[in-house]
Write a structure and sequence with these properties.
single chain, six-stranded antiparallel beta sheet, 7 helices, about 30% strand, protein serine/threonine kinase activity
Amino acid sequence: MNSHYLSLSFIITLFFFSTILPPSHCNVYEPFVKCSRPFECGSIKNISYPFWGGDRSAYCGRKSFKLECHNDEYPVYRFKELEFRVLNITRSSMTIARLDLWDTPCSRNLLNTTVNYTEFNYALNFHNLTLYYGCPPSVNRSFQNWFSCSSETGNANNGFLVDNETFLSTKSQVLENCNTTIKVPISRTALISESEFVDQALQNALNQGFDVQYRALPIICGGCVESGGKCGSNSTYPFVCHCHDGEQPYLCLRNGMHALSLFTFLY
């Protein structure tokens, strides 16, 4: 029989089996399997790219989006010296709150709040709250917006909060005698008025957290998912598409496309 027809018969058979028969699970690309698992912790469920952590390896997300699970209760996001409790995650943003200020404004980590500005932007609904610590007793008598923190020596460490920059400009001379100042983002819906019970209102505002939006996530992730892949990264590129049979830059190639490529190569 003509060798040309034998080759053609072989290619047609290969094409049939590669497109009709289901793929073997014995040879599935490992990153595809691992990145199929969502990150889940507490009430936060079904989290995928760009996040990784837990059962999701680093190549399942972007480097700066690592999450940790605290006692199976809630996710924690770390940036430099600060830890943030993750309250909610959507496709475009997440809501976080400083863990050291959770349930108490009396932190030992008196640092300004910063986030990774390479990966995140503050959402439009954020507002900076200014907290003063180690204020003299005269502050208590002058204003309503004060709170108290007990020091290690048992003495009261007076604090004061400002969520109105106009107020700050008129009272700065009194507050300049406080020892430390930090800024903490809160949601605008949690603004505190002087008529409120300050301790409770302050804690509610801190526990509500604030929103950060992801910057410049690849829109091609949707195409990768539609082609049957899992979005991820590698040591060289911040985005790759992990497919059933290997890694691709953007999309998973369908079996028919592989067979067609082989046909073109042989002829």
